[in-house]
Amino acid sequence: MNNMAAIPATPTRRSNPWTVLFVFLLIYIFNYADRYLISGLVDPIKAEFGVGDQFMGLLMGPAFAVLYTTAGIPIARFADRSSRIAIICAGCLIWSLFTGLSGLATSPWMLALARVGVGIGEAAFVAPAYSILSDYFRPERRSFAFAILGLAVYFGQITGYTAGPAIAEVHSWRMAFIAMAVPGVILSAAAWFLVREPERRHAATTAAQMALAPLVHKLARARAFTLMMIGMGLGTLSGVGFGFWGPTLFSRLYDLPLASASSTFGLYFGGAGLSGMLLFGVVADRAAKRGLEWPLRMAAGALFAASVSILLVTWSDHIAMAKLFAIPAGLLGGGWSIGIMASLQYLLPDRFRATGTALFIMVTTFLGFVLGPWLTGALSQMFGDDALSLRFALSIIIPTGLIGAASMGLAVRHLEADRERLAGIAADPAAR
């Protein structure tokens, strides 16, 4: 890797692109670690507060994700005309502080409010980060850069799955939250000093913004945008539902201590997912030379195959079989989101890239993080609140990924035409 992959220097002094990417990777790791930390602490929290799977699903999903999704839009609008790195640093500090406050909760509803704060802080990262990286890396190198950033999803999940239960076994679930808050505070300061705001590549970016309602209307008419959004939303619903409840499923099905189940789940899915993420980024960049719609084609195929593999894991009667199927599930599931995010950045003009990305993330996150964990928990509790009920619940949630893959495949047909139309709208907002 070298700096030739980066966009040519501007008169504004810039950070090294790979330094920016590395700092964002570390921040994103703890973004996901703090998000998934609770999934490895389900049983001790249930035991202390006397709640069921449905309430734990509420903590994992809606309590975190409702404001995570809605706050992303005004934050991204602000990011389209102001310092994106300042927004990222502030958000990192906020979610870290609320992660620590989660460990001080004296009731389940106080814990839910702390999760709301985590969601608000984490909403400040993704859209500004993708926007900054798009200014640092050329389109033909973005898939690889996004793949590196995407490693955080799996590093973060592994960290949350393993560190939380390990700390809880020695101390308590409360100390797990407090300890996991510290790295984010440090990284917030590090990003402020190490990452410089890049000059935006087109003057139009800093021009007056389009009003939000007309922008939403124009994006909704772009079939590629809508189909990609539906596809990623359903794929996220499938993957996140399984990601949050997978350790509990392993614990209940195979009679494992939660710490052991979490580390096993994280090791096999996370390890394979890391490999899949890197592999997808490299292959997608090469495929993009044939046409910039190819990363999206690959994402559709990978999501379809990953959903089938995850279903096989869910219905494995022995842990050895579950581990075996976890490898293709992780490899295939690890990279598909990289392809769709690279295609999204290619589709959206600079002028409203951060806002368009935030709208996209709002819908996909609502489907994935609001509905996925909560609906899985609610179905599990309805079916019996045990191992078999959780297996049935996941068997309803996971196949949504198959529908998402089909939606992505349809989006490929419209990518180029919609890119040209949105570019025309960015140049002339009155254009249809």
Short descriptors:
single chain; mainly alpha; Growth Hormone, Chain: A; 19 helices; 0% strand; disordered N terminus
Report what the structure shows.
This protein is mainly α and 432 residues long. It has a single domain (16-427), classed as Growth Hormone, Chain: A (Up-down Bundle). 79% of the residues lie in helices and 0% in strands. The radius of gyration is 21 Å and the shape is globular. The termini are far apart. It is found in: Membrane.
Main sheet overview: none
Number of helices: 19
Q: Helix/strand-derived class?
A: mainly alpha
CATH 4th-level superfamily: MFS general substrate transporter like domains
**Averaged pLDDT, please?**
81
CATH class: Mainly Alpha
CATH architecture: Up-down Bundle
A few lines on this structure:
By secondary structure, this protein is mainly alpha-helical. It has helices at residues 17-36, 42-49, 53-60, 62-79, 84-102, 108-122, 126-136, 139-170, 173-194, 212-221, 223-254, 258-288, 294-314, 319-333, 336-347, 353-383, 387-397, 400-411, 415-427. The chain has 19 helices and no strands.
